[in-house]
């Protein structure tokens, strides 16, 4: 099972998605007997790579947000002690 094959949500895999969809259109019955399996495997690998890239970017963004939050908390706790 794969996520919905929308090109705008998976720009890294757009070419493989198009090939996979074309294969399904060109082989409406043979697709059930493994005609498009090679493309499906390539598509799954591409989705895994795309997910790894997104996961890394989200982690980096999370680290930056945590640092900003800690700096804000430190600054806020410092101003409370002065008053």
TrEMBL record:
Keywords: Coiled coil, Disulfide bond, Mitochondrion
Parts forming coiled coils: 55-82
Chief subcellular location: mitochondrion
Family the entry assigns: Belongs to the CMC family.
Top-rank taxon, per record: Eukaryota
Protein name: COX assembly mitochondrial protein
UniProt-annotated location(s): Mitochondrion
Keyword Nucleus: no
Gene Ontology terms: cellular component: mitochondrion
